[in-house]
Amino acid sequence: MNIFEQRESNVRSYCRNFPALFHRAKGSLIYSESGEAYIDFLAGAGALNYGHNNDYIKQKVMSYLEADAITHGLDFYTSAKEKFLSKFFETLLYPRSLDYRVQFCGPTGTNAVEAALKLARKIKKRPGIFSFMGGYHGMTLGSLSVSGNLEIKAGAFGTSNHVNFMPYPHGFMEKIDTIEFIEAVLNDVNSGIEKPAAIIFETVQAEGGVIVAPIEWMQKLRQLCDRHNILLICDDIQVGCGRTGSFFSFERANIIPDMVILSKSISGYGFPMSLLLFKPELDIWKPGEHNGTFRGNQLAFIGAAAALEYREITNIEQEVKTKETFLYNFLIDKIASISDKVKIRGIGLIWGIDIADFGDSSLTKKIISRCFELGLIVERTGRNNTVIKILPPLTIEMPILEKGCFIIKQAFDECLAK
């Protein structure tokens, strides 16, 4: 038994599926201490869109450290924060005509979710929140309250007070107009459900099984919120920062959420960082009303500004489109063709292979374990973990992407043969 099994909590999870002692990483490869290389189709659960130890971003961070620049600054005005804010607005918000204020929250995505829920309730003076079945928003109490997975909520009793879960357009719910259903709930004086302060949604339910919301559905959701004076919160933690192609995942629907939550890859280098964007008229916070010791991660500011520069230099959006086309064609031709029980879903560089119809919830575990033996790290997700989720760095080289995909194909063939 190693030190981790002896001393680390039972709550550990990823290490159970990928039981190696990792030592270093570069680009889209992770190396174990014994020198074995693994292709990374996990990318820090979406926190490493620009790959491991991206050279451009690393040099900016190293230069900052070598200058003995401030590394912890609460919410002081700092040169690092100034540089990030300037680049963020010049590169992303102004060109898209997005007028948002920026709130720096605690270090992880769930901190920004908590801030969004708190602010929405403060603004509307209503306690209710609508979320969606299959949604995932984090592990703190407020975020758990709007997450659908009952298993992760098991020890947090009473978290979902004032939260109602609406149907997301997936599976059986695709047969009904889910926006029309929400409309009916809001208009029915006998529904038993009060008008919420906000509706929180993901344009792609990543942890829910890589379920991509239709453009028209998102547009109707925006219109519904406008009609009923409800704030629309877009959780772009995992599928933002270019994961779907455009920087913000909601751009394809040509909508503007009232609030946007960013984390994971916003720092560019895997540093903890989360942001809450909201329309200026919603900024009714009093000074210090919502804060946190690590809401000003200076290294993350440097990494984030460098990441935005890197995006411009490399034309990464076009790269994602090219790799999206390859992934779609490969998964349809090589994986979906294995059986009509295999369902493929995805967009940009997030794809899911849904094998729930095989009726064996352990099959994905066997497949990802075999992938790991063959040198690929890929996780499973969705209801009962029946979806294999492909989430490589956006910068992954095409030969490595192809090799990883063929490993998945080999693992499928071998596991189904058994």
Automatic annotation (TrEMBL):
PROSITE patterns: AA_TRANSFER_CLASS_3 (PS00600). InterPro entries: Aminotrans_3, Aminotrans_3_PPA_site, Dat, Ectoine_EctB, PyrdxlP-dep_Trfase, PyrdxlP-dep_Trfase_major, PyrdxlP-dep_Trfase_small. Signal peptide: none annotated. One of its GO terms (molecular function) is diaminobutyrate-2-oxoglutarate transaminase activity. Pathway: Amine and polyamine biosynthesis; ectoine biosynthesis; L-ectoine from L-aspartate 4-semialdehyde: step 1/3. Its EC number is 2.6.1.76. PANTHER family: DIAMINOBUTYRATE--2-OXOGLUTARATE AMINOTRANSFERASE, DIAMINOBUTYRATE--2-OXOGLUTARATE TRANSAMINASE. Belongs to the class-III pyridoxal-phosphate-dependent aminotransferase family. This is Diaminobutyrate--2-oxoglutarate transaminase. The lineage of its organism: Bacteria, Bacillati, Cyanobacteriota, Cyanophyceae, Nostocales.
